[in-house]
C-alpha cells in the first residue's frame, strides 16, 4: 500500500512558520478535518487539518521546525477504510489570546480587533488612550463605527500602552493590530518583547446584559485563553473552561495535555471553591457534568444555522456566570397600581405638548430608590467577604434590542424627576436599539429593573446583573377582584413583581419586606417622601 504525502496547505502570506504542536503520532487513525499540527506565526495560530482520512505512517516535522505552504509534514497510508478525501482543507487561523490578565506572560501583547461580525474595513472614530496610559482589562481602547453600528474595543488585559498602531480614520477589520500593551512585570520596565510577542484578541465590547441562558463555559474567559483551534475544540467537546487552565506550552500556551489533565482534575485545576472569597466565581471544574449533547438535527428535519449576534455571545457568558455563581432566589409579590395608573394617564395628558410620554417604568425606578434607601443591602455589591454599600442610586433597565438584551443605566435616579427619567430612558433605549450605547452608559448600575410589562406574562425569574445583588422583574398589569374581608370585592389594577436576590447577601425575610415596601410605594407614591 503506497503512502500519501500530507502538505501544509495555503496559509496566506505566511512562510517559515514554526510548528508549535503535533496532535498525532505514527499509527494514529485520523478522519478528514482532524487537526494534525498547529503552526504559530507572530500574527496567528493555525491548525492544519487532515485533508483526508487515513493512518499516520510517518511524521516529517518536529516541534520548532519552520514550515511553509507545500512543506510535507507527514504521510498517510493510501487505505480506503478511513473514509473519503475531503476537499483541500485550508489551515484554520485563529487570532489567539494570551491567558487572562492574572497569568498573562510578561512582555508585550498585541491587541487586535476582535470578531466584529460581518464588518470589514471599519473606520476608527476615536482612540481613548495614549502611549504610557495604564489600562485595566475591559477599559475601552478605541471606538469603531460602521454605517450600522458603533463598537468599542476593550482591553483584553491590564497593562500599559506601549505603542498605538492606528490613527483616527484608519480602517480596520477583525485581526488588525490596534496597539501594543506592556503586560506583567514589563508594565514597570516596559521590557523588550519576548522573541515571539503573544497576541491578544480583545473581547468584543463588554455589554451589561441579563436574561435566561443555560450554556456551557465562561465564554469571555474562554475567548481570552491562549490556545489554538484544536485545543479549543477539544475543550468545547469536554465542556472545559479554558479560562481556568494555566498553559504549560511556550508563553503559557494551553496545549492538549493541559485540557486533558484539567478534565481529570489535574495540576491545572483551580483551587477548591471553598478556599475562595464569597464573590469569586467557583469555576466550572468539579461539576462532573455530562458533555453537551451533539445531535445531528438535520437527521430529523430541515434546519438552518444562524450564528449568535456579538451581543448575544457576550450576554450568554455573563448570564451563565451570574446564574452559576450567584445563589438566586426569586420572591413574587404584587402591587396595587390603580391610583398610580390614573395619575400616570392624567400626567401624560398634561405633558402631551412636551413630547415626553411616561410609562410605568420611571415610577418603578422612583419606587426602587425608596426601597433601596430603606434596605441598603440591596444597593450593594459583594467584594470578597465584605459588602460594599453604595450611597448613590443608579438604576439599570433591561432594553430589548434587535441584537439582544442590553442594560442602559440611569444615574442618580433619586435626584431626577419622573419626566426627566422618562426622557432619558427613551434616549438610552433608542441608543441601545441603534447599537450606539457607550460602555459608560451601561456601567455603574446599583439595581436593575427588567420590565416585560409592555409585552405580557405574569411572573418570571430575572437573572441578577452582577455585581449587583438584586433585580426587579415586572410583568403586565391586569385587573383583579380584590377583597380585604372576603365579602366586599373591588376591581384593582395589579402589577406582578418578581424580585431575584443573591442569597449570600440577602435573606428571604428582607426580600419579602423589600417587595412589600416597593409595592406600597407604587400603591401610594406619597410614601416616596418617607
Ligand atoms: N403593564 C401594562 N402595560 C404596560 C406595562 C405594565 N407593567 N409596562 C408598560 N406598559 C405599556 C406602556 O404603557 C405602553 O403602552 P402604550 O403604548 O399604550 O403607551 C406599552 O406597554 C409599551 O411600553 P414600552 O415597553 O414601550 O415602555 P416601557 O417604558 O414600559 O419599557 C423598555 C421600555 C425599553 C424597558 C421596553 O421597551 C423593553 O425593551 N422591554 C423589554 C425588557 C426585557 O426584554 N426584559 C427581559 C429581560 S430578561 O430576559
TrEMBL record:
<comment type="similarity">
    <text>Belongs to the 2-oxoacid dehydrogenase family.</text>
</comment>
<dbReference type="Pfam" id="PF00364">
    <property type="entry name" value="Biotin_lipoyl"/>
</dbReference>
<dbReference type="Pfam" id="PF02817">
    <property type="entry name" value="E3_binding"/>
</dbReference>
<dbReference type="InterPro" id="IPR004167">
    <property type="entry name" value="PSBD"/>
</dbReference>
<protein>
    <recommendedName>
        <fullName>Acetyltransferase component of pyruvate dehydrogenase complex</fullName>
        <ecNumber>2.3.1.12</ecNumber>
    </recommendedName>
</protein>
<feature type="domain" description="Lipoyl-binding">
    <location>
        <begin position="108"/>
        <end position="182"/>
    </location>
</feature>
<dbReference type="Pfam" id="PF00198">
    <property type="entry name" value="2-oxoacid_dh"/>
</dbReference>
<dbReference type="InterPro" id="IPR003016">
    <property type="entry name" value="2-oxoA_DH_lipoyl-BS"/>
</dbReference>
<dbReference type="InterPro" id="IPR023213">
    <property type="entry name" value="CAT-like_dom_sf"/>
</dbReference>
<dbReference type="InterPro" id="IPR006256">
    <property type="entry name" value="AcTrfase_Pyrv_DH_cplx"/>
</dbReference>
<dbReference type="InterPro" id="IPR050743">
    <property type="entry name" value="2-oxoacid_DH_E2_comp"/>
</dbReference>
<comment type="subunit">
    <text>Forms a 24-polypeptide structural core with octahedral symmetry.</text>
</comment>
<dbReference type="InterPro" id="IPR000089">
    <property type="entry name" value="Biotin_lipoyl"/>
</dbReference>
<dbReference type="InterPro" id="IPR001078">
    <property type="entry name" value="2-oxoacid_DH_actylTfrase"/>
</dbReference>
<keyword id="KW-0012">Acyltransferase</keyword>
<keyword id="KW-0808">Transferase</keyword>
<keyword id="KW-0450">Lipoyl</keyword>
<dbReference type="GO" id="GO:0004742">
    <property type="term" value="F:dihydrolipoyllysine-residue acetyltransferase activity"/>
</dbReference>
<dbReference type="InterPro" id="IPR036625">
    <property type="entry name" value="E3-bd_dom_sf"/>
</dbReference>
<keyword id="KW-0677">Repeat</keyword>
<comment type="function">
    <text>The pyruvate dehydrogenase complex catalyzes the overall conversion of pyruvate to acetyl-CoA and CO(2). It contains multiple copies of three enzymatic components: pyruvate dehydrogenase (E1), dihydrolipoamide acetyltransferase (E2) and lipoamide dehydrogenase (E3).</text>
</comment>
<feature type="domain" description="Peripheral subunit-binding (PSBD)">
    <location>
        <begin position="226"/>
        <end position="263"/>
    </location>
</feature>
<feature type="domain" description="Lipoyl-binding">
    <location>
        <begin position="3"/>
        <end position="77"/>
    </location>
</feature>
<dbReference type="InterPro" id="IPR011053">
    <property type="entry name" value="Single_hybrid_motif"/>
</dbReference>
Amino acid at each position: 500500500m503506497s503512502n500519501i504525502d500530507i502538505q501544509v496547505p495555503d496559509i496566506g502570506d505566511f512562510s517559515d512558520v514554526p510548528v508549535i504542536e503535533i496532535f498525532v503520532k505514527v499509527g494514529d487513525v485520523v478522519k478528514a478535518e482532524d487537526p494534525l499540527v498547529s503552526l504559530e506565526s507572530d500574527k496567528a495560530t493555525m491548525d492544519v487539518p487532515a485533508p483526508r482520512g487515513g493512518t499516520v505512517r510517518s511524521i516529517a516535522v518536529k516541534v520548532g521546525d519552520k514550515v511553509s505552504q507545500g512543506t510535507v509534514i507527514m504521510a498517510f497510508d493510501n487505505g480506503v477504510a478511513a473514509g473519503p478525501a475531503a476537499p483541500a482543507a485550508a489551515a484554520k487561523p485563529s487570532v489567539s489570546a494570551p491567558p487572562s490578565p492574572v497569568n498573562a506572560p510578561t512582555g508585550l501583547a498585541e491587541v487586535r480587533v476582535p470578531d466584529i461580525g460581518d464588518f470589514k474595513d471599519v473606520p476608527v472614530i476615536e482612540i481613548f488612550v495614549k502611549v504610557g496610559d495604564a489600562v485595566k482589562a475591559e477599559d475601552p481602547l478605541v471606538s469603531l463605527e460602521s454605517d450600522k453600528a458603533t463598537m468599542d474595543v476593550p482591553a483584553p488585559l491590564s497593562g500599559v500602552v506601549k505603542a498605538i498602531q492606528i490613527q483616527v480614520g484608519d480602517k480596520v477589520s477583525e485581526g488588525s493590530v490596534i496597539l501594543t500593551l506592556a503586560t506583567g512585570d514589563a508594565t514597570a520596565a516596559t521590557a523588550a518583547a519576548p522573541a515571539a510577542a503573544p497576541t491578544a484578541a480583545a473581547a468584543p465590547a463588554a455589554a451589561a446584559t441579563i436574561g435566561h441562558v443555560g450554556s456551557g463555559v465562561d465564554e469571555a474567559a474562554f475567548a481570552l485563553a491562549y490556545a489554538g483551534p484544536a485545543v479549543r475544540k477539544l475543550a468545547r467537546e469536554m465542556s472545559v473552561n479554558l479560562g481556568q487552565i494555566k498553559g504549560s506550552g511556550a508563553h503559557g500556551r494551553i496545549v492538549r495535555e493541559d485540557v486533558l489533565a484539567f478534565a481529570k482534575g489535574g495540576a491545572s485545576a483551580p483551587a477548591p471553591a471553598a478556599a475562595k472569597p464569597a464573590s469569586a466565581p467557583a469555576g466550572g471544574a468539579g461539576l462532573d457534568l455530562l458533555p453537551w449533547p451533539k445531535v445531528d438535527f438535520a437527521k430529523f428535519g430541515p434546519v438552518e444555522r444562524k450564528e449568535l449576534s456579538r451581543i448575544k455571545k457576550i450576554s450568554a457568558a455573563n448570564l451563565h456566570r451570574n446564574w452559576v455563581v450567584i445563589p438566586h432566589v426569586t420572591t413574587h409579590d404584587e402591587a396595587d397600581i390603580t391610583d398610580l395608573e390614573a395619575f400616570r394617564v392624567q400626567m401624560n395628558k398634561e405633558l402631551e405638548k412636551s413630547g415626553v410620554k411616561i410609562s410605568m417604568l420611571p415610577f418603578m425606578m422612583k419606587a426602587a430608590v425608596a426601597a433601596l434607601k430603606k434596605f441598603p443591602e440591596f444597593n450593594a455589591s459583594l467584594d470578597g467577604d465584605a459588602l460594599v454599600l453604595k450611597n448613590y442610586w443608579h438604576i439599570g433597565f433591561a432594553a430589548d434590542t434587535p441584537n439582544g438584551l442590553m442594560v442602559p443605566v440611569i444615574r442618580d435616579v433619586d435626584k431626577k424627576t419622573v419626566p426627566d427619567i422618562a426622557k432619558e430612558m427613551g434616549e438610552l433605549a433608542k441608543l441601545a436599539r441603534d447599537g450606539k450605547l457607550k460602555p459608560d452608559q451601561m456601567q455603574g448600575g446599583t439595581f436593575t429593573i427588567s420590565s416585560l410589562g409592555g409585552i405580557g406574562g405574569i411572573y418570571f425569574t430575572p437573572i441578577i446583573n452582577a455585581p449587583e445583588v438584586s433585580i426587579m422583574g415586572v410583568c403586565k398589569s391586569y385587573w383583579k377582584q380584590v377583597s380585604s374581608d372576603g365579602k366586599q370585592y373591588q376591581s384593582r389594577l395589579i402589577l406582578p413583581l418578581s424580585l431575584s436576590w443573591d442569597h449570600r447577601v440577602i435573606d428571604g425575610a428582607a426580600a419579602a419586606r423589600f417587595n412589600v415596601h416597593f409595592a406600597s410605594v407604587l400603591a401610594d407614591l406619597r410614601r416616596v417622601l418617607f
